Amino acid sequence: MNVNQSAPPGPPFGQNQPVYPGYHQSSYGGQPGPAVPPAPCGAYNGPVPGYQQTPPQGVPRAPPSSGALPASTAQPSGGQTTYSQFGQGDIQNGPSSSAQLQRLPGSQQFGSPLAPVVSQPAVFQPYGPPPTSTQVTAQLAGMQISGAVAPAPPPSGLGYGPPTSLASASGSFPNSGPYGSYPQSQAPPLSQAQGHPGVQPLLRSAPPLASSLTPPASGGPRMPSMTAPLPPGQGFGSLPVTQANHVSSPPTHALSPGTQMTGPPVPPPPMHSPQQPGYQLQQNGSFGPGRGPQPNYESSYPGAPTFGSQPGPPQPLPPKRLDPDAIPSPQLNELPPQQKTRHRIDPDAIPSPIQVIEDDRNNRGSEPFVTGVRGQVPPLVTTNFLVKDQGNASPRYIRCTSYNIPCTSDMAKQAQVPLAAVIKPLARLPPEEASPYVVDHGESGPLRCNRCKAYMCPLMMFIEGGRRFQCSFCSCVNDVPPQYFQHLDHTGKRVDAYDRPELSMGSYEFLATVDYCKNNKFPSPPAFIFMIDVSYNAIRTGLVRLLCEELKSLLDYLPREGGAEESAIRVGFVTYNKVLHFYNVKSSLAQPQMMVVSDVADMFVPLLDGFLVNVSESRAVITSLLDQIPEMFADTRETETVFAPVIQAGLEALKAAECAGKLFVFHTSLPIAEAPGKLKNRDDRKLISTDKEKTLFQPQTGTYQTLAKECVAQGCCVDLFLFPNQYVDVATLCVVPQLTGGSVYKYACFQVENDQERFLSDLRRDVQKVVGFDAVMRVRTSTGIRAVDFFGAFYMSNTTDVELAGLDGDKTVTVEFKHDDRLSEESGALLQCALLYTSCAGQRRLRIHNLALNCCTQLADLYRNCETDTLINYMAKFAYRGVLTSPVKTVRDTLIAQCAQILACYRKNCASPSSAGQLILPECMKLLPVYLNCVLKSDVLQPGAEVTTDDRAYVRQLVSSMDVAETNVFFYPRLLPLTKSPLDSTTEPPAVRASEERLSSGDIYLLENGLNLFVWVGASVQQGVVQSLFNVSSFSQITSGLSVLPVLDNPLSKKVRGLIDSLRAQRMRYMKLIVVKQEDKLEMLFKHFLVEDKSLSGGASYVDFLCHMHKEIRQLLS
Ligand SMILES: [Zn+2]
C-alpha cells in the first residue's frame, strides 16, 4: 500500500521521518488493504457513514518537518528504552522485556510475516470529519466545568461531530436490538447548581438545595419513573421538598410507624406535561415505611399519583393511582384481596424497574450518546442508543458505578458507594458504530508518558508550542519526538488533533512493535484444538456424532480478520476417555492417523508435524477423521475419563507450535480415572448454610490452578462444554477456563433431540467469535485514585496486570478503585485501560480506552451520577467471589449493610429533612433495593432445594465475567406479555414486573433472563389464541415442557416466534424454551424467576426487603 505515500524517502515509518510514520492517510478513510489484517472486530468494521466524509487526513497535512521541528525537541533521552513500558516496574502492556520473556520460553517462528506494519494503513478506517470549532470548545468546556452538562438541553450532543449521518442512522436503528439511539440529556439538570464547590456545605443536614432549588440527587436524568416531564421554565423551585426521588414511607409521624405520614408535601403532580421531555422531576413517590402494616396507607399515600406518568405514553393514564408499568393489568382486580393488602404497601407505589427502563428508553433512546463531555452518565443498558466517540470510551467498553467521584477518601468511605468500572475491552459494536481505528507509529511504537507509561490520548496536554506534552495521569512533562511534532492552534490544541485517533477518540488501537511481543518475536497465528470426550456417555447420547458432523461445516467459519479470505487459525483434534488419541491430519495423507498416549501422568504430544493444520489444505483428511470418530468409538464401554491431562495435552501442543490458542473441550463426567487432576465426588448438600459451604465453591485440588497458570503463560485459553448426567464438580473443572479467560457451557442430561439446537448455537457462536489472545490488560488512573481490585475470568500474577490467555467480545473485567490522594474537581479523575493482545491473524496490538470522570465535593453530586445497574454488577461479583472464602450468610449481610449505608448516607447528607418514617431513595438508586434483593436471593447466595451444587458453581462462574446488560437481565428477568399488544406491532411488547400478581390467567407471557426462556400460558387463555400458537384446540392439550413452538402461518405465531428469535439473538447464549402452563408442576420452575415475589428458598419479596432495608437505614441514622 501507499506506505510511503506521504512520507519522504527513507525507510517507511522510520523514526526520523518528519512525516507521521505509520499514520498514513491511506489508513484513514482509505480502503482496507488486503495486506493488513483488519481490526479484530472484522464484522463490525463497517465504516460509519458519518465518518466517511473525512478527507484523507494525511494528505493535507504538511509534513511537520516544515520548519516546526525545534531542534530542542530532541528525543527523550532514554530513547526507546525509556519508552518501553517497563518503566518503573511496570511490565504490563509493555514490550516484552524480562518479565514476559521468562514466562514464555518458546521462541516464535512466524513473526516475520506479520511484522511489517506497513500494511497497516489498510487497517485504518475512515476517520471522522475534521474538527469543528464547536468540538474544540466543547471539549475544553468539558474538561473544566463539570456542571456544564447540566443544563437541560445538552449542547454537547449537537455540536459534535458530523451530526448528520449518524443522527439519521440512529433513526433506523433497530429498536429491539441491544443498541439504540438515545437522547442526550444525560446530565442531571440540577447538577449545575450543586456542582459548584463552596456553594454548599458538604454535609448539610437540611439540604436546602435539595428542597428548594434542586431536587437532590434525585435529579438524575434517567430517573423516570415517577416523574413527569417538567417544563424547563418552571424552575425547580416549585418542586421543592418533594424529593422526587424519595420514596417516602407511609404515614408516620415522627417515628411511630403506623401513624399518618407527615411527609413532604407532594408537589402538584406534574403529571401529564408531555412537552419537555428533557426535564424530569424526580420521582417522588413516597411510600410507606415498611414498618408495620398501616391501615389507610393507600389512601394517604401522597406520592402515588405521580407514578406512571411517563412522558407521552401511548395510552391515557388513569387519574388515580397508576400502575407504574403503565400497563393495564386488569387481573389485579381479580386477585384475592389478601394478596393485595398483605404488605400494606402498594406494590405500585414502590420504584418499578419496568418504569425506569421505559422512561430511559423514551428519554434517551432517540439521540446518539456523544462522549465528548466529561462525566456524562450514559443511558441505561436496556436502552437502545448509538454512541459517537468524541474523546471518551463508549459505554459499551466502560461503564462506571458513578461518573462523579468524591474528591476525598473520607467522602467515599462515608457514602460506601463502590467506585468501580466494568470494562469490556473487545466489546462488539453494532454495525452503525465504527470499531476502533488502528494507529501505526512505525518502529518507534506508540507514544507514551516516560514516567507512568500512559499511552498518548486526548487527555494529554501539549505545551510549549507543541514541543512537549504533560501527562494528565502523572503530570510528568515529556518531550514530543520530532516525528510526532505538530503546531498548536490558538486554543492550545494540536492542529492535527482530529486527524489522529489517539488525540481525539476515546478508543483506538496501536499496532504494537516487536518490543511488545514475547521473546521479541512477532507471534504466530493462533490455533484451535478440539478435544472430544469419546467415553460411553458421550457416545450414547449422540453427542460425538452431532459434534463431528457440525465441525465439518463449522471449521469454515473460524474467526478471520477483515477481508481475509480464510482464517489464519490452524486446527487440531484430540479424542479421549482414560487415554488420549492424537490425530495426524496432514494434507498429504490419504487418511488421518491416530496416535494413542496412555501415559496420562506425563503428557506429551506424540506428533508435531500434521497435528495443527490449515483447514482448507487438510479439508479432505479432516472430513474423513470427523466421519470416522463416531464409528471408531461406537462400541466403547469405557466410562471413565481424565481431564487435566487433556488440557495439558492441548497446552503442550501449543507450546510445541509456539503459538497461542484455544482449546475446545467437550466433556461429560467426573474425571475419576487414575491421572493428575483426578477428582472424587464430594458433593454434599448438607454443607449448605454451614460455615463449610464455601468448600462447595472451591476446587478440590490445586492441580488445576497450577495448570491454569501454565496455560496463561502460553496464551492457551480453554473453553469447556460440559454434558453431565450427574455431579461433575463444576467448581473444580471450571478453574482452568476461569483463569484463562475461557467460557463454560453446561448442558445437564444432554439429549440430542432436546438440546442440539442450543448446543450447536452456542458452539457456533463460540467458535466464530473474535478473540484476543495472550492478552495483558492494565488500567492506569490519574493521581488520586488507583485500581485496587479486579473481578472476572483472568489470572493475575501481580497486583496490576490482568492476564488473559484469551479475551473475547463478551467478557468483562470489573475493576474497583480506591483513593490514594485527594482528587480535584478541576482535573477530574481519568482512566486509561490498555489491552495488549494478539489478534486472530496473529497481529500484536494495543487497544486503548480512555474515560474522564468528574469529581465532587458534594455527596449529592455522587448520588446524582450513579449507575445502579453497574453497581449491581459490581456488588454481585463481589458477593460471588466472597462465597469462596466466607460463609454465605456473611456475604449476604455484608451486601445488605453496604446498601443500607449507601442509602443512609444519602438520607443524612443529601435529602431534605423529613420524617424518619419515610424511606428516601436517591433517584439514581431507587432500584438498588429491588435489584440487590434479586442478587441476595439468587441461586448462589440462597439456593432452593432444586439447585444443585454444580448449578451454583456454574452460575457463579458465569456471572464473574458478565457485562452490565447481562447481570441486569439475569438478576431481574424480563417478563413480556405476548397477547396484549396489537399483532401488527413490530416492537417488543412493554415488559411487566416480575411478580405473579402481574400475570393474568387470560394471557400468555414470555420470561427470559439471558440463560432461560419460558412461555407461560394462563389457564383461561382464549381457545383461538391457543390454537394460533400451539396448534391444539384447548389449554389442556398443550404439552407442558414443550421446547419448540410449532411453525404456524398466522400473525400471532409469527410474532411470538419472531420475538423469541430476536431475544435469543441479543443474548450471549442460546436460551432454550420451556413452555409452562398455569398450575402445572413445571410452574414452580417458572415462579423461581418472578423475583419480586417471596421465593420458595426463603428469599424476601421486594416489598418485604424494602421494609427491611428501611429498618436498617433507620438504625444507622438513629
Ligand atoms: Zn504519566
Notes on the structure:
With 1118 residues, the protein is α/β, with parallel strands linked by helices. The chain is built from 33 helices and 29 strands. The strands form 7 sheets. Strands 6, 8, 12, 20, 22, 24 and 25 form a 7-stranded mixed β-sheet that branches. A 7-stranded mixed β-sheet has the order 16-15-14-13-17-18-19. α17 runs antiparallel to α18, α26 packs antiparallel against α27 and α26 (888-909) crosses α33. It is globular, with a radius of gyration of 29 Å. Zinc ion (ZN) binds next to loops.
Quick tags:
single chain, 1118 residues, alpha/beta, 7-stranded mixed sheet, 33 helices, 29 strands, disordered N terminus, binds zinc ion
Largest sheet: 7 strands, mixed
- Helix content range: 25-40%
Q: What structural class should be given to the helix and strand makeup?
A: alpha/beta
Q: Return the average pLDDT rounded to an integer.
A: 76
What is the β-strand count? Answer: 29
Hetero groups: zinc ion
**General form:** globular
Q: What is the rounded Rg?
A: 29 Å
Count of separate DSSP helical elements = 33
- The first-to-last residue Cα distance is 72 Å
Which stretches are low in confidence, meaning pLDDT under 50 for 5 or more residues running? 1-343
Binned strand content: 5-15%
